[in-house]
Amino acid sequence: MKLLIKQARIVDPASPHHGQVADLLIENGILTTLSNKISVKADQEITIPGLHVSPGWVDCFAHFADPGYEQKETLETGAAAAAAGGFTDVMIVPNTSPALHNKASVEYILHKARTLAVNIHPIGSVTRDTEGKELAEMYDMKNNGAIAFSDGLNSIQSAGLLIKALQYIKAFDGVLIQLPDDKSINPQGLINEGILSTQLGLPGKPSIAEELMVRRDIALNEYAASKLHLTAISTTGSIEQLKKTKKEKSGLSCSATPYHLFFCEEDLTDYNTNLKVNPPLRTKNDREALREAVRTGVIDCLASHHLPHEKDAKVVEFEYAQHGMIGLETAFAALRTSVEDLSCEQIVTLMSINPRKIFGLSAATIAEGQSACLTFFDPDAKWTVNSETLRSRSHNSPFIGKTLRGKVVGIFTKNALTLV
Question: Which of 12, 152, 192, 345 has a 20 to 30 Å separation from 72 between CA atoms?
Fold first, then answer.
């Protein structure tokens, strides 16, 4: 197959063609020619005004609910949503039934995903059944294709267990992903604790529940001299601690969700259950601190925290609704809309360059002779999110009906083109 992309702006700091507008010729999955003008007969040609191309984007925290919760999402529908969001690679959390806690479960994911449009990378659980009680078979999972380790939606509460896991993964240069949340601090909290939670009559979850765990986990990782990635950072205190530590130490990285950059607690005044998430939406000041952390590089990458739910899990009273929203298809546009002054290079660093470095994926550099793993996008196109065109099996998105800036055009990976 020959694919010719005409006059695309290349966004890849590692490429000798970075910043140039060029034609790209892909033959049998290999980027064979980059030039100002290519005149060849191709099987397919793409000419789109304003087109940008970058190394394929990576999402490091998504839930595809398969096996066990296929009414929410399947690997097939999750992959379709990821492709529509511009992601060539997605790391999926182990909170399935059964959990991804042994080599058989990792092999199941990899076998089932081999023909899908995107590369799906299972995250092996740190503990059996993600229950936080005893360590899972991490070495076997790593040898069979697990990209990293986490208990996913379940924050590891035991310091002793976490430090053992951090020490254990050093044997194979692994990375542990943790969602920082001290569950002993007001576990009934539904939204951010503050004036608004009182006004709405909803129990609050204080910022300190996250910030204590951030400080604890950083200290444990320093002691173990291992690799820790903290995800869904949402408070000013967490950002300040990360900023200070990252200046002095290595082995620590972090990610934020697009929805914490876009929304804040004030968006909850109409009790929209699609905005019930964990950690909860924080204050406007927290949101601005998070946006600044993205601008300055304190936040290393984005994590969609794509968490699909069927209608019955969300169309209920706020107290009984399950946490989470879908986010793969709106991740780029939410970032582009909420942090408008980010350059395309900063966006690609957040969505491709950094996560590939942190989790050991190939760089996917745009250069002649390289295997083509690409994302195509228009950074300035505006579009309105429509529930009828969403690829995810679930539609629990607060972005439906909103007009966003920045649109994905498609992806190329596994020697196949997928257009949105």
Answer: 192
Q: Which of 58, 8, 11 is nearest to 354 (CA)?
A: 58
Is the Cβ–Cβ distance between 348 and 55 less than 8 Å? yes
DSSP string, 67-108: TT-TTT--HHHHHHHHHHTTEEEEEE-S-SSS-S-SHHHHHH
What pLDDT score does 359 carry? Answer: 98
How big, in percent rounded to 5, are the helix, strand and coil portions of the chain?
Answer: 35, 25, 45
Check for a shared fold between 2-52+368-386+403-419 and 56-358.
no
Which sequence spans correspond to the domains of the chain?
2-52+368-386+403-419, 56-358
Q: Is the pLDDT of residue 250 over 90?
A: no
Interatomic CA distance for residues 146 and 126, integer angstroms: 11
Report the first-to-last Cα separation within the chain, whole angstroms: 20
ω into 279 cis (within 30 of 0): yes
**Tens digit of each residue's pLDDT (9 = 90 or more) over 163-178:** 999 999 999 999 999 9
CB 57 within 8 A of CB 87: yes
Residue 129 Rama label (left phi>0; alpha psi -120 to 50; beta)? left
For 169, which DSSP code?
Answer: G
16-43 burial: b if 16+ Cβ within 10 Å, else e: ebbeeebbbbbbebebbbbeeebeeebe
DSSP string over 211-275: HHHHHHHHHHHHHHT--EEE-----HHHHHHHHHHHHH-SSEEEEE-HHHHH--GGGGTT--GGG
Which one is the CATH code of 56-358: 3.90.45.10, 1.20.120.640, 3.30.420.40, 3.20.20.140?
3.20.20.140
